[in-house]
Amino acid sequence: MSFLLQCSFRQRPFRQRPLNLFFAFSLSFIFLFSFAVGLQTLFIHGANAAEQKDTKSDNKNNNYNEAETLVFGLSHMDNVNFGQTVKYNFERKGVFGDDFKDAIELIVSKGEGENNKSVAFNFFSGKHSRPYPAFGFVDSNPLLTLYFNKDAWDISRKIKAKGTANYLRNRIVNAIGKVKKIGKTVCKYNGVDYPAEVISFEPYKGDESSHHLVHYALTKYELTLSKGIPGGLCKIKSVVPQHVGGVPDHIRQKIKKAGMIQLAEETELVTSLKDVKKPLLVEVLTFDSVRQTGVAKSD
Length: 299
Hints:
Blueprint: H1 3-6, H2 21-55, H3 66-72, E1 84-94, E2 100-110, E3 117-123, E4 135-138, H4 143-156, H5 164-177, E5 183-189, E6 192-201, E7 220-225, E8 233-240, H6 249-257, H7 261-272, E9 281-292
Antiparallel strand pairs: 1-2, 1-9, 2-3, 3-4, 5-6, 6-7, 7-8, 8-9
Helix pairs in contact: 2-3, 2-5, 4-5, 6-7
């Protein structure tokens, strides 16, 4: 059994078989179920953080650190009104030839009940579009959940081992919980500089299974959050730096044998690169604007 497929990410490996209609349907069901479970994990974590924040004002006396509270435990959407749309710009640049620029929009409307907000999404466009369902009863910014979910699925599609996406999501949540130092900066909005917090972490660093992610094991994240920005999110930046010396030959061969074509092509390219200082991949999401696009629903 191949190197990567032997890695179960704490679950049994996925075994490829010829696809028929029944199997294709089953895969679709599993994908949707895993997606729902992954979102539920992040939102339960966020809800718990918010509850702890409400009941205990001193973070030192509860189970959540400052970073978790900033990401999962604040009411980011308080300064976004019904009928407004929050826009974020996205740019992907790297050595793999799949660069693109696009946008993500959060469309806020009145949800069920008094003062509850519902958020629908325009998540990229064209071939990059992702049909995420609307979220109801929104308090924190749902893009923090969806963006990490996007990254988890992007990597898991290349590494064909069952449970990879769940593993990646869990590592991201756990890494935020281990952040001890919060950086300070400012975010500009309408000509005003607002105080902001910077949360930096490497979710797969030091994990026993991280080497199975090849170059993605080195992924670094930087979140910039500010209460002065509508939706609370100023920027998300992720960087995949290069492996020093590239990917070992025996690893590349086992990736090929496992039939992971895209990942195999990437590892060959990574090994051939001469400029080791240039990142393999950089993705940046930045707050752009908020505009009135609709009205609140009447009760």
